[in-house]
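re: that chain from earlier
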Amino acid sequence: MRHLIETNDLSNQEIKLILQEALNYLDGKHHDTLKDRVIITVFFENSTRTLSSFEVAAKRMGAEVVRLDVARSSTKKGETIYDTAANLNAMLPSAIVVRHKHAGVPHLLSQHTSCPIINGGDGANAHPTQALLDLLTLKRNFNVLEGKKIVIVGDIRNSRVANSNINLLQRFGMEVILAAPPHFTPKTHLKVYYRLEEAIKEADAIMSLRTQVERHSFPIYGSLRDYGRDFCITKKLLKDRNIILLHPGPVHRNIDIDDEMLKDPRCKVLEQVTCGVAVRMAVLKFFIMQ
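^ sequence. v structure.
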């Protein structure tokens, strides 16, 4: 039984197949490929895009979706997460999609289930389907990624999105550059800039990240606006450059990206959401039909 815990669980060839399959699903049409299959979503952290995207993806593939209401589940009565997983597995689902605030939980649960575990994000560790949809969005806009430069901006140290993208985008030939204040920068071999203006000089794409305040043990900035003064992506900053802008969401307006840039055609945030449903349709098919 195979699981999707991180992007390294897939070979480059398998990723290419998944992305090619996802292109067929961008029309929003329904399919019966997963008819009579049941997919359970278990999100121990809040989510708008990922949870909705997985559920829409499952339904568009013809599957039934059961969402575990964690706030009302037996985990609140003292049941361990392992027992929760074992009980859900005993209901014979076709796959379980898990998000948890602690890194490593989806991997641990995969050892207690006989169906595929799909990681919907675990702590600051990994978010494989987000990286896959970002890769698809980039490929649709650039076609050839080899040699392209992308600058990841923001709270990189605490970002599972950054971790997964740094790994995946380099595998497909992109140069990844980091731009962040020192306390948001991880230990890395990558090129790092502490000034946004310097970082983006040669960039073909920018990926802005949300400041992960919920993962900070103490306040780092007096306010998010203090951070935004130095690292907000603005139309004034990008001028008329031929560049694309990504963000995994949720966007802190005028802190991560300003209002003008969010309306700019170079901003691909909503295209990412569309690609996300298609990619997750392809991912569910790949792992369930293996």
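The mean pLDDT is 93.
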